[in-house]
Write a structure and sequence with these properties.
Elements lengths: L3 E7 L4 H11 L7 E5 L4 E5 L5 H10 L3 E2 L1
Antiparallel strand pairs: 1-3, 1-4, 2-3
The protein binds copper (II) ion.
Amino acid sequence: MSDINEYSVQGMTCSSCASKVSTAVKQVPGVITTDVDLSTGTLRVTGPAVDSSAVRTAITDAGYQVS
Ligand SMILES: [Cu+2]
């Protein structure tokens, strides 16, 4: 797995949504940084060997959809 992964997240409309998603994803083991681009709905996650299915679960558990 690469150290940088991007996810397309649906449902984030403001900075509060972005921080909610970031906070949830930062709980995933191995995640070092998260960065959200609200205009595109892109979540960028850095960290070695991050389990992408765990990231997806964290996003959906926070109440957002990921494609
Ligand atoms: Cu919001």
